Here is the input.
Amino acid sequence: MSPVLPIDAVLPQVIAALRDAGRVVLQAPPGAGKTTRVPLAMLDAGLTTGRILMLEPRRIAARAAAERMSATLGEDVGGTVGYRVRGAAATGPATRIEVVTEGILTRMLQDDPELSGVGAVIFDEFHERSLNADLGLALCLEVAEAFRDDLLLVAMSATLDAGPVADIMAAPVITSEGRSHPVTPKWLERPVGSSGSERAVADLALTALGENAGSALVFLPGEGEIRKVEALLNGAVPNDCTVAPLFGAMDFKAQRRAIAPAPSGRKVVLATSIAETSLTIEGITIVVDGGRARRARFDPSSGMSRLVTERVTRAEATQRAGRAGRMAPGVAYKLWTRGEEGALAAQPPAEIEAGDLTGFALELALWGGHAEEMRFVTPPHEGRLAEARRVLRMLDALDGAGRITDHGRALARLPLHPRLAHMVMRGGRRAPALAALLAERDPMRGAGVDLSLRVRAVEKGAPDAHAPTLVRIRQETKRLARTVSGSGPDDIGLLAALAYPDRIGLRRKGDAPRYVLSGGKGAVMPQGDALASVRLIVATDLDGDPREARIRQAAPLDESDLRATFGGQIAWETLCAWSRREKCVLTRQQERFGALVLQDRAWRDAPEDQVALAMLEGVRQLGLAPGKAAARFLARARLMPAPFPDFGETCLLDTLEDWLLPHLSGVRSAEDWKAFDLLPALRARLDWDQQQALDQAAPAHFETPLGRQIPIDYSGAQPAVSLRLQEVFGVTRHPVVAGQPVQMTLLSPAHRPVQVTTDLPNFWASSYADVRKDMRGQYPKHPWPEDPTQADPTLRAKPRSR
Here is the structure.
């Protein structure tokens, strides 16, 4: 008889909700038993005559769930309960409950939108929010509304924020309280110096094993960390303990050994987040959480998703701790302090927010739907979805109108990223091996950049390659080779270019191995690498530096192959643009592939109107920098009230095309601009009436009694002129322009200022006497009359005495 589990208390509510509404959202904490109890309860209740599909995020969880349900029924897997995962299946004619990985549902829906023979779909561990789960739920909701109002839908999770999911499903929420057994949390007393380090995790695990009986589950982010902690624990754990790794890339037999009960004594399972979900590992009453998680993030530098290591979230920590209470009361050791827990993020990001949307966009195109019209828990970001569609157009998977092509349909059938699927479809016999290699971790880290070294290791072996990774790559190669057999090229560089046409790199000039990529980004290769002098490469793996990415894997590309394969995208273009670096207009003719310039030559007969238009960008960089005459004009014009044209610098720069462009003939550089007279272009902005109004309101010159015209400076607080004192003899009224008295700087015969005044009559009557006294001695040859108001203006010296 099966033990009573917490989920049993709410199963009648779940069944009733499905009978009434056909949908339900179920929240149940870790260890409640939802994964194995709910499908069997639905089967027993006779809710549907069709198969019950249950989705699991991982292959090991799918197989383990099917095995546990089959054991409950006293059957072998493949009878009433079966499973289907990539590369393996166990089903039969009598199978009523089928546990599948999430991507399989998408394929089933694309092949048969009515889901013939399926009566219910259960989304287990929906809190993980994979792209396939989000897409699968949105597609199922469309199917249920369009074809199958009898299709039952269930979303289950331990840590799910149920509100948004229930809203889009229009479903009731049922919550199962409590877990099978209590779990006691234990935090560090003080933060560790390097949180999450393998040494700290190993020490905490040894402490936990020393303080408690039972087996332990230790959470680490990935295989590399697991292997390091395994080495630290071997020989250090108590004699009754066996150390067992558990991660997704292991073969299923090794995974099965890790989750099976220890033959004797205790077991220490070192696991990735693969053990957070519906896996039950026998005998576990201790959890040691290293506090880190590895998740997929879209990396624009590689064009695909990359795994990054981040701090665990509160939801993940709760899920992990719950593993200790599945079979008995347990304890959860956490590699952080109680105070640090408050700083943890609440939930991990959904893959639709952080992952690569290229495959998602391809599935949408194949379905014929529009993302904005479908019901997603989290709608995809429009900009990132547009970028994904750009990649698909580049791979000939979508046409110019965004519709899926026949080639795109073929790509969607392959269990690969669309880039790699495109390469396999268009490549030759080596394409499956390269696709499997690029989809895996690098088996030869530190062995140099050359991708062909890795391909040879896959084909022939290499002593410095990571053997387990090579085994996985070879297995996947065989599987892909059975799926598709292309007749295209086998050159590694050309195959890589098919997958990454936007990552073809051309070496820049200079000694450093720096490259510009066809997609427009920059990249740099390690100094001294064997490929550092190669002119053309394809960069298949780069780090995330947004300015200049470091190339980690690449293959050389022959230019003849580039031209033969991408000839339709190579074309001569003319360049007429301002160079901020050279500070001149560059006019070139260039043969280009994307951002790559394959050939470059001078464009000697570039049209003047194009040169002038390009020069405008130079003007914006250099600034207007008007000469003296133009500056005086601008000062006058800026005094005029609206509706007079705006001569402010911002307006002038914003409207260069309107007033300056017709006058820029022959101006091509910063030196040309420095010598350019801006005044005619500025004056041309005014019609005749406006020029007359300006000259009357703010005249350009002050006319002296001798008839000389002296420019008026309007740049200060009031208009100003400078002129010889003798030139204004006889002037008894102070000149006024623009409604203001002119500030007059009176100069000596040597053109040095002797007085500044805005009241010339007052100056004659007051200060002039003192000035005359000083000036007569210094300039005896020039007239200094006692009454300047009665003297004639002059610029001459006294006549010589005879």
